[in-house]
Amino acid sequence: MKLRFNLILNLVVGLVAIAATAPATTVQAQSAILSEIYGRGVHAYNAGRYDKASEWLSMAITNGFQDPRAYYFRGLAAAASGRAQEAKTDFQQGAEIEARGAFGDIVGRSLARIQGPTRIELEDAREAARLKALALGVSRSQARYGELGVPAAGAAPNNATAATPRKVMPPAAPPVDDPFADDMGGDPVVESNDMLEGAMDNSILGDDGGAATPEPTESSNPFDSGPSDDPFGGGGAMDDPFGGF
Predict the structure, then answer these.
(1) CA dist 63 to 66, 104, 224, Å?
(2) Euclidean distance between CA atoms 71 and 123, whole angstroms
(3) Which SS3 state, helix, strand or coil, does residue 150 take?
(4) Can you give the residue ranges of every domain in the chain?
(5) pLDDT digits over 91-124, tens only?
(6) Cβ atoms of 54 and 77 closer than 8 Å
(7) pTM of the full predicted structure?
(8) Angle at 100 between CA 99 and CA 101, to 5 degrees
(9) Between 156 and 144, where is the model more confident?
(10) Of 69, 93, 175, 239, which is most buried with the most CB atoms under 10 A?
(11) How does pLDDT run across 29-64, given as a tens digit for each residue?
(12) Which stretch is the leader sequence (predicted)?
């Protein structure tokens, strides 16, 4: 087994040496071999063979396998073997590679089976690396803005003075005449506070309180025009036109 491991190691080293002057197809072949070595290291870790997992994963990392998962699983193997400091170092190195790259959710899926305090330590390293990368990106952006002479978001322009500009107040609006104002001035005149005053006065009477119109008499009845005015009258009962027959 030791001889087989050394043969594979020599093969990988030879491929890496050729990759510097080889075409792209050879580089892809070398990447496939390193991925295979990484996969063997992960299988060895899942099987509880932590020393063998460290050997396979170290081989992939030494030959240029830039995948944070190789560092994570090598750190997990070191933690399972009681090498806490080595595990912490691998977690930090893998987190820095992950924060600089674009690996998507492939890392999370690979670590789904890992639980417990060691996983918490690993996640702390990943979060710290992300925050560090974010702060570095902001710092570089501000430096780039400074080189271009453009103020960064939320920053004051370079030629801005510390003095606060004087606020210009708009002119006051001209006075408007009150259309309901009394042209004659003075207080308004209230003739009477009693709204019903004079409402019951007889409109027929004069101001001197004269007598009312006299009651009508019998002779003044407009409907009494005398006997001769009755169209059905004819001088009494003897004038019956049906009499005499």
Answers:
(1) 9, 23, 144
(2) 13
(3) coil
(4) 1-65, 66-153
(5) 999 999 999 988 889 999 999 999 999 999 999 9
(6) yes
(7) 0.52
(8) 95
(9) 144
(10) 69
(11) 778 999 999 999 999 999 999 999 999 999 999 999
(12) 1-24
Asked if 158 and 151 count as a contact pair (C-beta separation under 8 A), the reply is yes
Number of helices followed by number of strands (H, E) in the chain: 7, 0
Cα(18)–Cα(112) distance, rounded to whole angstroms? 36
List, in order, residues 6 or more apart from 8 with CB less than 8 Å away.
Answer: 37, 59
Q: Report residue 74 as tokens.
A: 């090598």
Alpha-carbon distance 169 to 145, whole Å?
35
- Secondary structure of the chain in the HEC alphabet? CHHHHHHHHHHHHHHHHHHCCCCHHHHHHHHHHHHHHHHHHHHHHHCCCHHHHHHHHHHHHHCCCCCHHHHHHHHHHHHHCCCHHHHHHHHHHHHHHHHHCCCCCHHHHHCCCCCCHHHHHHHHHHHHHHHHHHHHHHHHHHHHHHHHCCCCCCCCCCCCCCCCCCCCCCCCCCCCCCCCCCCCCCCCCCCCCCCCCCCCCCCCCCCCCCCCCCCCCHHHCCCCCCHHHCCCCCCCHHHCCCCCC
> What does the pLDDT look like over 206-234, one tens digit per residue?
444 444 445 555 555 555 555 555 555 44
